[in-house]
Amino acid sequence: YQNLIFKILGLRSGKLIQANLIEFLITYISIFMIAGIFGIFTSEFVIETIFRLGWQLEFVPVLNVLVIIGALTLFLILINTYRFLKPSVYPMVRNE
Questions:
Q1: Most buried among 6, 25, 47, 71, by the most CB within 10 A?
Q2: DSSP state, 96?
Q3: What's the pTM?
């Protein structure tokens, strides 16, 4: 219903898409930072301490996963945004 609120406030489609993109970037970057740091330290600890193996961080697979997940998430967010860009506002407000 976020897009409904924005539409009631009078925002246009371009501003709605821009708001969703900014929200996605802020959320994605913060989740990436937290999960990345936690995952790196946890995997290093498990591999070196429990399995007693050598551990080396490889950036290419990590970046591939980040780009694929980020692109897929952004695509799904934009599809959802476009789907709700032109809702009939009054029935939604009246809970019909």
A1: 6
A2: -
A3: 0.72
> What angle (nearest 5°) sits at the alpha carbon of residue 29, between those of residues 77 and 22?
50
In three-state form (DSSP H/G/I as H, E/B as E, the rest C), the secondary structure along 37-92 is: HHHHHHHHHHHHHHCCCCCCCCHHHHHHHHHHHHHHHHHHHHHHHHHCCCCCHHHH
pLDDT digits (tens, 9 = 90+) for 14-67: 888 888 899 999 999 999 999 999 999 999 999 999 999 999 999 999 999 999
Dihedrals φ, ψ of 86, to 5°? -120, 55
End-to-end CA distance of the chain: 14
Chain centroid, CA 94 distance in Å: 31
Q: Each residue of 24-60: b (16+ CB within 10 Å) or e?
A: beeebeeeeeeeeeeeeeeeeeeeeeeeeeeeeeeee
Tell which residue, 81, 73, 77, has the closest CA to residue 3: 81
